[in-house]
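Colleagues,

Please find the record for the four-part complex below.
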Amino acid sequence: MRDLAQLLKGNTDVLILSLLESEPMYGYQMIKELERRSQGFFHLGEGTLYPVLHRLERGKLVVGRWRRLDGGQERRYYSLTEAGERRLEEQMTAWARFSSAVNLIIKPA
Amino acid sequence: MRDLAQLLKGNTDVLILSLLESEPMYGYQMIKELERRSQGFFHLGEGTLYPVLHRLERGKLVVGRWRRLDGGQERRYYSLTEAGERRLEEQMTAWARFSSAVNLIIKPA
DNA sequence: CCGGCTAGCCTTGCGTAACGAGGTGCGACG
DNA sequence: CGTCGCACCTCGTTACGCAAGGCTAGCCGG
C-alpha cells in the first residue's frame, strides 16, 4: 500500500466534514474538490470515499438526499447535521493537537 | 480502537527514527521518551513499539545491539543506519507535505 | 453503430498496522 | 511472599484505505 494511505487513516472524516462545512456536495464532487483544494495531493478513490460517506451517514453526522437533475441524472447530495458540525470541531482540535505533538518529536527544540 | 490509533498510522516510523537521531535508545526508553517529549500525548503500547522496531530492523533502517548492565539486566539499544537517516529525511518531508495538504482542506483560505 | 470516455453511484476482498492482553524474567520494597 | 517497575516479546482483533469490479447514462469519434 502507498505510504500516503497510512497517513490518511483517521483523517478522511475530518477532510470530508470540512468540505461539507461550506456547502452540500455529492460524492464525485468531493473527490474532485479534495484534489483541487489540496493542489493535487489527495486523490481519494471512490472505493474509499463512498464507504466513508455511508459510515458518516450511519453515524448521523451527515444526511444524504437524492436530487434529480434536468437530464434525469441522479446525485446524492450530503450535508452536515448538527452532530456533524460538533464532530468537525472535535476532529479539527484533535488534528491540531496531534500534528503539534508530532512536530514536538520530529523537530526537537 | 481509539481515534488516536488511526491518526498514528503511518507516523510511528518517523517518530521512532526521530528519537534515534539524537542518540541510541532501547525500546522501553523510547516509550517514556515519546511520552515526555510530546507532553504526555503519545502513549505507545509495548505491543505497538516492539513490532515497529523489528520491522525497522528488518528494513535495515536501524540496528539493535544487546547490552548487558551491571545488574545482569539486558537491554537492546537501537541506532540509525545510514539508510535510516535517509528514510528519516524522506518521512519528515512526507509529513510536512501531508500536514500542509490537510491544513489546506480544513482551514480554507 | 460501436467503442471508449466522463459522470455518478455502489460493493467485495485484501493488506497494513496499531493495540490490548498475555507471557517471560529480574531486582527492589514492604 | 506479593507486587511493582523495568525490559523484552508475541498473538488475535479490528479499523480502514484501496484496487478492482459492476451498474446506468450521455456524449463523441470513427
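The CA atoms of residues 93 and 99 of chain A lie 10 Å apart.

Comments are welcome before we finalize the supplementary table.
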